[in-house]
Amino acid sequence: VVAMTDPLSAVLRSVHLSGGVFVDARFSAPWCVRSRLTAEDWGRFLERPTQVIAYHVVIAGELDLSIAGESPIRLRAGEIALLTRNDDHVMASGPGLEPVDADALIQHAPEGGLARIVHGGGGAGVHMICGFLGSEAPHASLLAALPRVLTLDIREAASRDWIEASVRFAANELAEGRLATSGVMSRLSEVLLVEAVRHYAAQRPDTETGWLKGLSDPQIGRALALMHGDMRAPWSAEALARAVAMSRSAFMDRF
Hints:
alpha+beta; 6-stranded mixed sheet; 11 strands
């Protein structure tokens, strides 16, 4: 199991994320669907989450994903897209296709098993696992600093081996209709978000400020992790500086 003890992991864990999988989707070209998570999708796992993040793990094939106002993103096998605002989005085998409502295609399994989608014209295939992350924490707004879509190539992730093993496990379980949500899937969902945010933060310019930039500084990152680990504590600059072995003036300059 991956040990997630760095400041970024600690801060994201502080928003108390839960995760699950709601559909096993298989498409064949040509195809185009419009999708957005609804309370019906996550309601079995969470009650009134303050923030929901949809994600799609591409097991096989490739597709275009787009949201209004932004250019389409090409996703290939081994890549993941996380929609941090749970925006309406369109997924398709290629451009120029009229989308159909994904909800109308969902085949609900008996006895609460995993739902499935099988749709398309019989051409090149795509297999995806579609899931979600949700938070009921009141300070989940810290995720609002993220872009509307985060992408991650598993091959570039620091936790690559664990992610690949977990995705294979999930795919095997899904094939047997056994896995809707579990500790493994919640852990996988959390790791996917951490790795995607880490990849995004690494690409930000050195001149950028904000909590993501702060997490890249070892001592400031530790301070942010401490704050988010106990949001009710009466933190002060002096207390945080002492906790990360810095002078108050040096802490304030870098914070």
